[in-house]
Amino acid sequence: MNKQILLMLIAFLVFLALSVGCGNRIPDLQKRAEGGNVKAQLELGQTYYDGIGIEQNLTKAAEWFRKAAEQGDALAQNYLGTCYGLGEGVEIDLVKAAEWFRKSAEQGNVTAQFNLAQSYYKGLGVEQDSAKAVEWWQKAAGQGLAEAQYSLGYAYLEGIGIEEDDIKGAEWMMKSAKQGLPCAQAILGACYYDGEGVPKDPAKGEKWVQKAANQGFEPALRFQKEYNEDEK
């Protein structure tokens, strides 16, 4: 048998087995969720949300996220906030989105902390408040979330909601860049090019901008093109 055909057959059989397995577990999951099991409610919500082993249904996903969220499950609370923020399975309601993000964030859910920070930064469902955005970025960044580390670094570099501090800004950009976030890599490269918060080092600047460009990050590609043209 042709090797490629064999690999395709194996992949199909694995997919089929997984699909059957998912389908078989749905009735039991539904029963446990209806019985009030919070983990089952969350899992059933995720199943409907992703359409794994069952037809995707965002309305039912939001319903089960709500049941788990009302029992205090932090992950479900963040999911429900996302549903309200994006209008998935419910009508868009940015106030309710922020409320659920807050409930989850206060329990330490790192994604919810970042989402709440973004709500404050952009004034979505809450009064715009850059200082509060920074507070929640700090919490999420402290837990290692690359996007929060980038946002906090940018806040320090630009003095957004906090006193400008180029050194701290570059430090947080470095943490995010090392996790592979291209926008952080590009900004860190610019810091090295300009000596902003770090000793001026064009070679390191080029290295970090290149890392961002390798991921197809458009601003980094544009920067390289303009920089190379200036060098000619």
Q: Any idea of the CATH topology of the largest domain?
A: Serine Threonine Protein Phosphatase 5, Tetratricopeptide repeat
Radius of gyration over all CA atoms, rounded: 23 Å
For CATH, the homologous superfamily of the largest domain is named as Tetratricopeptide repeat domain
Q: Residue ranges: pLDDT <50 for 5 or more in a row?
A: 12-22
Helical amount among residues, as a percent range?
Answer: over 70%
How many E strands? 0
Measured between the Cα atoms of the first and last residue, the distance is: 57 Å
Main sheet: strands, sense, barrel: none
**By helix and strand content, what is the structural category?**
mainly alpha
* Relative strand content: under 5%
- Give me the number of helical elements: 12
Mean pLDDT: 91
Query: What is the H/E string?
Result: HHHHHHHHHHHH
CATH architecture of the largest domain: Alpha Horseshoe
